[in-house]
Amino acid sequence: MLDDITRALAEVGQPFDDTRTHYCQVQATALDEGRCTLAGAVLDDATLAALLDGLAARFPAIRFETAGVYVLRAAQPRTAAVGTNLTGLYAKPSFLAEQVSQLLNGWPLEILMTEGRWAFVRQADGYLGWAYAPYLAPAHGCAFSHLVSAAVSLLRAEPSPAAPIVTRIMGGAAVAVDAVDAGWSHVTLAGDSAGWVPAGDLRAFSVLPQDTAARRGQMLADAARFTGVPYLWGGCSALGIDCSGFSQLLHRLVGVTLPRDADMQFDAGRPVEAPFEPGDLLFFGEAGETRSITHVAVSLGGWRIVHASRSRNGVYEDDVQAVEHLRESFVGARRFI
Question: DSSP secondary structure string, 301-326?
């Protein structure tokens, strides 16, 4: 019977198999006199409830004990912010593990559990992974007012291009401006770095484009700033970026939130057909019985695209119809603006 329950756990847990946004690691450890002891961890109460409902439907005579199941999202969550200018998000608690994404300064995080010097964190969009805990800081108390719209902005000790560099702020990071001086803006970052950046490197949330045409035009201008940025799996900054990190960043800079990965973006967007508008996302996949999404590009209008290309090792423009592997692997297009 315990083996039957183990198999049932695998079945009812299938909706939570995507470890990018779900956590469900529960085992049946003992069965005695109609009571089954469960142990492990789940992301939230809803996950645990779904497991128990599925088990109860299959084994109505068995009582399932869940005292040994840890719910990661507690009623009073532990919060933090990214305290460095940039850090990796990893599949496992090790710098040698796969980098699944990156985190920019000030991004809010929910700490779900810790292991040594590592924290298992949840981003605001639900994306999960391991971050190096010494690179995190207390949750940022200031209200963000601007996005860094430059690919990289140099934070200086004084409002002068000759002043010493304090650090670099990556494009897409949110900052709070607390003073201005002759074309310079003073910002304080999570982790307590403070200094001055050129005001032109920032874009106030209050002036983000609101209509579709303005957003499309701004995305084209922003995309040009990232030309030549090298390709990096899991990257989402001008120090290295992958295809979905690039499409996500361009949308963030016009105030639109996208899921992190290409397949997630494909599922979330509105389907569109050619002719494509600037800002539409074009998706590509590997051949097979079904096409799994493996790449995303941003349309510049029609089949002309800009993308973080692994084959070209960076952000460059291409014409889908002129590149055989792109033309033959095209799956479909989606729109978010």
Answer: ETTEEEEEETTTTEEEEEEGGGSHHH
Specify the 3-state DSSP secondary structure of 290: coil
What is the CATH class of 2-71? Answer: alpha beta
192 phi-psi bin (left φ>0, alpha ψ -120 to 50, beta other): left
Three-state helix/strand/coil letters over 245-273: HHHHHHHHCCCCCCCCCHHHHHHHCEEEC
- Please state, in angstroms and rounded to a whole number, the distance separating the CA atoms of residues 229 and 202: 20
Closest to 332 in 3D by CA, of 286, 292, 272: 272
Angle, in degrees to the nearest 10, between helices 2-12 and 45-58: 130
What CATH number is given for 208-335 in this structure? 3.90.1720.10
CB 193 within 8 A of CB 137: no
| Model confidence pLDDT, tens digit, residues 156-174 | 999 999 999 999 999 999 9
C-alpha 27, offset from chain centre = 29
Hey, what are 110's tokens? 């929910």
pLDDT band at 287, cuts 50/70/90?
low
Torsion angles phi and psi, residue 229, rounded to 5: -60, 130
Question: What 3-state class would DSSP assign to 95?
Answer: coil
Place of tokens 């200031």: 142
Roughly how many angstroms between the first and final C-alpha of the chain, as a whole number? 52
Q: What is the per-residue pLDDT across 204-247, written as a single tens digit (0 to 9) for each? A: 999 999 999 999 999 999 999 999 999 999 999 999 999 999 99
Please tell me if the domain spanning 2-71 has the same topology as the one spanning 208-335. Answer: no
